[in-house]
Amino acid sequence: MTNPLEAIFCDDIRREDNGKLLIIGAYGGNIIVNKLPVQLRLSIWIRATDLPESPSPGLIKISVNAEQVHQIDISDRAQDDTGLTQFLLIGVPIDLEAPSRITVELKIDDDKTERRAEIEVTPAAGER
């Protein structure tokens, strides 16, 4: 069973005084960089529904070209009344040497549901 999570890849996420999230520099279909190699400081807003309740162990894994570069423990999480769980990852450093695919995966122990989102990173036309 596949249940893709919702993710917005962006430059920054801030919370306003009234609790609203402000997403800055949201990326569409892919991320275009001036040149490679590059170090991105990527922020990611993740929304997932119907996750098994805490304290089931869980992780968010961030990979570049299928090689894991970050892992975040999400065992302590909470859902709202609609079954929605949100995660804000802010300023995650990601080093890229070549055009790449960044993958965010949410894994909960004993849950076989696949939850992932991906974005491609490419250099601007004519750059390497």
Describe the structure using short key phrases.
128 residues, mainly beta, 5-stranded mixed sheet, 3-stranded antiparallel sheet
What do you see in this structure?
By secondary structure, the chain is an all-beta fold. The chain has one domain (6-91, 104-114). 0% of the residues lie in helices and 58% in strands. It contains no helices and ten strands. It has strands at residues 6-10, 12-15, 21-24, 30-33, 38-49, 58-64, 67-73, 84-96, 100-108, 115-123. It has a five-stranded mixed sheet, with no helix packed on it. The chain has a three-stranded antiparallel sheet with strand order 1-5-8, with no helix packed on it. A two-stranded antiparallel ribbon has the order 2-3. A hairpin with a 6-residue loop joins strand 9 and strand 10. The protein is globular and about 50 Å long. The model has no long low-confidence stretch (mean pLDDT 89).
Summarize this structure briefly.
With about 130 residues, the protein is mostly beta strands. The chain has strands spanning about 5-10, 10-15, 20-25, 30-35, 40-50, 60-65, 65-75, 85-95, 100-110, 115-125.
